[in-house]
Amino acid sequence: MTVDQTTRRNQRREQAEATRRQLLEAAGDVFERRGYRATTVGAITERADTAHGTFYLYFRNKEDVFCQVVEAVVVDELVGTTMVPPDGSPREAVERGIRAFVEVFDQHRGLWRALLEGMLLSPRVRELWLRLRRDLVMRIAHAFEVQQRSGRARPFDATMVAHSLAAMAEWSAFTHLVLGEPDPEGGPDREALVATLADLWHHAVRATPGSEAEAGEDGGGQMPPSA
Fold this sequence. Notes:
By secondary structure, the protein is mainly alpha-helical. It has helices spanning 3-34, 41-48, 52-55, 62-82, 90-107, 109-121, 123-149, 158-178, 190-205.
Protein backbone atom coordinates (compact mmCIF):
# COMPACT_ATOMS: atom_id res chain seq x y z
CA MET A 1 0.00 0.00 0.00
CA THR A 2 1.38 3.39 -1.02
CA VAL A 3 1.67 6.45 1.22
CA ASP A 4 -1.23 8.12 -0.65
CA GLN A 5 -3.43 5.05 -0.22
CA THR A 6 -2.64 4.92 3.49
CA THR A 7 -3.44 8.62 3.86
CA ARG A 8 -6.76 8.26 2.05
CA ARG A 9 -7.66 5.21 4.13
CA ASN A 10 -6.93 7.08 7.36
CA GLN A 11 -8.97 10.05 6.15
CA ARG A 12 -11.94 7.78 5.40
CA ARG A 13 -11.69 6.25 8.87
CA GLU A 14 -11.56 9.67 10.50
CA GLN A 15 -14.53 10.86 8.44
CA ALA A 16 -16.52 7.73 9.31
CA GLU A 17 -15.78 8.18 13.03
CA ALA A 18 -16.77 11.84 12.83
CA THR A 19 -20.06 10.88 11.19
CA ARG A 20 -20.71 8.24 13.84
CA ARG A 21 -20.07 10.77 16.64
CA GLN A 22 -22.34 13.27 14.90
CA LEU A 23 -25.17 10.72 14.75
CA LEU A 24 -24.58 9.66 18.36
CA GLU A 25 -24.71 13.25 19.60
CA ALA A 26 -27.83 13.92 17.56
CA ALA A 27 -29.47 10.78 18.93
CA GLY A 28 -28.68 11.84 22.49
CA ASP A 29 -30.27 15.23 21.87
CA VAL A 30 -33.43 13.75 20.32
CA PHE A 31 -33.84 11.13 23.05
CA GLU A 32 -33.41 13.86 25.67
CA ARG A 33 -36.19 15.94 24.11
CA ARG A 34 -38.62 13.31 22.83
CA GLY A 35 -38.11 10.27 25.03
CA TYR A 36 -37.56 6.71 23.87
CA ARG A 37 -40.87 5.80 22.26
CA ALA A 38 -41.38 9.02 20.31
CA THR A 39 -37.84 9.12 18.88
CA THR A 40 -37.44 7.92 15.29
CA VAL A 41 -34.43 7.24 13.11
CA GLY A 42 -35.69 10.00 10.83
CA ALA A 43 -35.65 12.51 13.66
CA ILE A 44 -32.07 11.52 14.50
CA THR A 45 -30.78 11.85 10.93
CA GLU A 46 -32.60 15.15 10.51
CA ARG A 47 -30.97 16.47 13.68
CA ALA A 48 -27.57 15.18 12.49
CA ASP A 49 -28.13 16.55 8.98
CA THR A 50 -27.26 13.20 7.40
CA ALA A 51 -28.97 10.91 4.93
CA HIS A 52 -31.42 8.41 6.38
CA GLY A 53 -29.44 5.47 4.99
CA THR A 54 -26.23 6.71 6.57
CA PHE A 55 -27.62 5.89 10.01
CA TYR A 56 -27.66 2.16 9.21
CA LEU A 57 -23.98 2.15 8.32
CA TYR A 58 -23.27 2.70 12.02
CA PHE A 59 -26.28 1.47 14.00
CA ARG A 60 -28.74 -1.38 13.58
CA ASN A 61 -31.81 0.50 14.77
CA LYS A 62 -33.12 2.99 17.33
CA GLU A 63 -32.60 0.53 20.16
CA ASP A 64 -28.94 0.07 19.20
CA VAL A 65 -28.11 3.78 19.11
CA PHE A 66 -29.98 4.40 22.38
CA CYS A 67 -27.93 1.74 24.14
CA GLN A 68 -24.74 3.36 22.86
CA VAL A 69 -25.90 6.80 24.01
CA VAL A 70 -26.66 5.47 27.51
CA GLU A 71 -23.38 3.60 27.72
CA ALA A 72 -21.41 6.69 26.67
CA VAL A 73 -23.04 8.82 29.38
CA VAL A 74 -22.60 6.21 32.11
CA VAL A 75 -19.03 5.22 31.27
CA ASP A 76 -17.65 8.58 30.16
CA GLU A 77 -19.47 10.90 32.55
CA LEU A 78 -20.71 9.01 35.60
CA VAL A 79 -17.69 6.80 36.16
CA GLY A 80 -15.32 9.61 35.33
CA THR A 81 -16.85 12.22 37.61
CA THR A 82 -18.79 10.58 40.43
CA MET A 83 -16.56 7.77 41.66
CA VAL A 84 -14.79 9.81 44.32
CA PRO A 85 -11.99 8.07 46.25
CA PRO A 86 -12.51 7.99 50.03
CA ASP A 87 -9.66 10.34 50.88
CA GLY A 88 -9.63 13.26 53.26
CA SER A 89 -12.84 13.69 55.25
CA PRO A 90 -15.20 10.80 54.38
CA ARG A 91 -18.25 13.04 54.82
CA GLU A 92 -16.80 15.56 52.38
CA ALA A 93 -15.87 12.79 49.93
CA VAL A 94 -19.44 11.51 49.99
CA GLU A 95 -20.81 14.99 49.35
CA ARG A 96 -18.39 15.62 46.47
CA GLY A 97 -19.36 12.35 44.85
CA ILE A 98 -23.08 12.92 45.23
CA ARG A 99 -22.81 16.48 43.94
CA ALA A 100 -21.00 15.26 40.82
CA PHE A 101 -23.62 12.54 40.36
CA VAL A 102 -26.51 14.99 40.72
CA GLU A 103 -24.90 17.40 38.26
CA VAL A 104 -24.56 14.69 35.61
CA PHE A 105 -28.11 13.53 36.28
CA ASP A 106 -29.41 17.09 36.02
CA GLN A 107 -27.64 17.62 32.69
CA HIS A 108 -29.38 14.56 31.26
CA ARG A 109 -32.84 14.71 32.82
CA GLY A 110 -34.55 13.77 29.59
CA LEU A 111 -32.24 10.83 29.01
CA TRP A 112 -33.08 9.26 32.39
CA ARG A 113 -36.76 9.64 31.57
CA ALA A 114 -36.11 7.97 28.22
CA LEU A 115 -34.10 5.24 29.95
CA LEU A 116 -36.99 4.40 32.26
CA GLU A 117 -39.30 4.26 29.25
CA GLY A 118 -36.83 2.21 27.23
CA MET A 119 -36.36 -0.37 30.00
CA LEU A 120 -40.11 -1.03 29.99
CA LEU A 121 -40.18 -1.47 26.20
CA SER A 122 -36.88 -3.14 25.35
CA PRO A 123 -35.26 -6.18 27.03
CA ARG A 124 -31.94 -5.15 25.51
CA VAL A 125 -32.11 -1.68 27.05
CA ARG A 126 -33.04 -3.20 30.40
CA GLU A 127 -30.18 -5.70 30.32
CA LEU A 128 -27.69 -3.03 29.30
CA TRP A 129 -28.70 -0.76 32.17
CA LEU A 130 -28.61 -3.57 34.70
CA ARG A 131 -25.11 -4.51 33.56
CA LEU A 132 -23.80 -0.94 33.70
CA ARG A 133 -25.48 -0.29 37.03
CA ARG A 134 -24.17 -3.55 38.48
CA ASP A 135 -20.59 -2.63 37.55
CA LEU A 136 -20.90 0.73 39.27
CA VAL A 137 -22.58 -0.69 42.36
CA MET A 138 -19.86 -3.29 42.78
CA ARG A 139 -17.27 -0.50 42.78
CA ILE A 140 -19.16 1.08 45.66
CA ALA A 141 -19.38 -2.27 47.47
CA HIS A 142 -15.62 -2.72 47.12
CA ALA A 143 -15.04 0.75 48.62
CA PHE A 144 -17.26 -0.17 51.57
CA GLU A 145 -15.30 -3.37 52.14
CA VAL A 146 -12.04 -1.41 52.19
CA GLN A 147 -13.51 0.98 54.76
CA GLN A 148 -14.80 -1.89 56.88
CA ARG A 149 -11.36 -3.50 56.99
CA SER A 150 -9.87 -0.20 58.16
CA GLY A 151 -12.59 0.23 60.81
CA ARG A 152 -14.05 3.33 59.19
CA ALA A 153 -17.40 1.70 58.36
CA ARG A 154 -19.65 -0.47 60.50
CA PRO A 155 -20.20 -4.15 59.66
CA PHE A 156 -22.87 -4.75 56.98
CA ASP A 157 -23.46 -6.61 53.73
CA ALA A 158 -21.46 -4.33 51.42
CA THR A 159 -23.16 -5.48 48.23
CA MET A 160 -26.70 -5.15 49.55
CA VAL A 161 -26.03 -1.75 51.09
CA ALA A 162 -24.35 -0.51 47.91
CA HIS A 163 -27.41 -1.54 45.86
CA SER A 164 -29.78 0.05 48.34
CA LEU A 165 -27.95 3.36 48.69
CA ALA A 166 -27.45 3.61 44.93
CA ALA A 167 -31.18 3.07 44.40
CA MET A 168 -31.96 5.73 46.99
CA ALA A 169 -29.75 8.26 45.23
CA GLU A 170 -30.99 7.32 41.75
CA TRP A 171 -34.68 7.48 42.51
CA SER A 172 -34.36 10.57 44.71
CA ALA A 173 -32.63 12.36 41.83
CA PHE A 174 -35.32 11.22 39.39
CA THR A 175 -38.29 12.25 41.51
CA HIS A 176 -36.71 15.57 42.49
CA LEU A 177 -35.07 16.68 39.23
CA VAL A 178 -37.43 15.09 36.70
CA LEU A 179 -40.77 14.98 38.52
CA GLY A 180 -40.25 18.07 40.66
CA GLU A 181 -41.00 16.49 44.02
CA PRO A 182 -41.24 17.42 46.84
CA ASP A 183 -41.68 21.05 45.69
CA PRO A 184 -43.07 21.21 42.15
CA GLU A 185 -43.91 24.92 42.47
CA GLY A 186 -40.57 26.07 43.79
CA GLY A 187 -38.56 23.95 41.35
CA PRO A 188 -35.68 21.57 42.07
CA ASP A 189 -33.27 22.53 44.85
CA ARG A 190 -30.15 20.71 43.81
CA GLU A 191 -28.08 21.73 46.82
CA ALA A 192 -30.77 20.57 49.25
CA LEU A 193 -30.90 17.24 47.42
CA VAL A 194 -27.11 16.86 47.61
CA ALA A 195 -26.99 17.71 51.31
CA THR A 196 -29.83 15.32 52.16
CA LEU A 197 -28.42 12.39 50.20
CA ALA A 198 -24.91 12.95 51.53
CA ASP A 199 -26.17 13.02 55.11
CA LEU A 200 -28.23 9.83 54.70
CA TRP A 201 -25.39 8.05 52.86
CA HIS A 202 -22.78 9.04 55.44
CA HIS A 203 -24.82 8.02 58.47
CA ALA A 204 -25.89 4.75 56.86
CA VAL A 205 -22.36 3.37 56.65
CA ARG A 206 -20.29 5.11 59.30
CA ALA A 207 -18.88 3.14 62.20
CA THR A 208 -21.04 3.04 65.33
CA PRO A 209 -20.06 5.22 68.32
CA GLY A 210 -17.54 3.53 70.59
CA SER A 211 -16.16 1.26 67.89
CA GLU A 212 -12.49 1.14 66.99
CA ALA A 213 -13.27 3.39 64.04
CA GLU A 214 -13.84 6.26 66.42
CA ALA A 215 -10.07 6.54 66.68
CA GLY A 216 -10.20 8.02 63.17
CA GLU A 217 -12.93 9.62 61.11
CA ASP A 218 -16.35 8.11 60.48
CA GLY A 219 -16.88 6.01 57.37
CA GLY A 220 -17.90 7.48 54.06
CA GLY A 221 -17.76 6.10 50.59
CA GLN A 222 -17.92 6.41 46.90
CA MET A 223 -20.84 7.61 44.91
CA PRO A 224 -23.50 5.65 43.08
CA PRO A 225 -24.51 5.60 39.46
CA SER A 226 -27.72 7.11 37.98
CA ALA A 227 -30.92 5.73 36.74
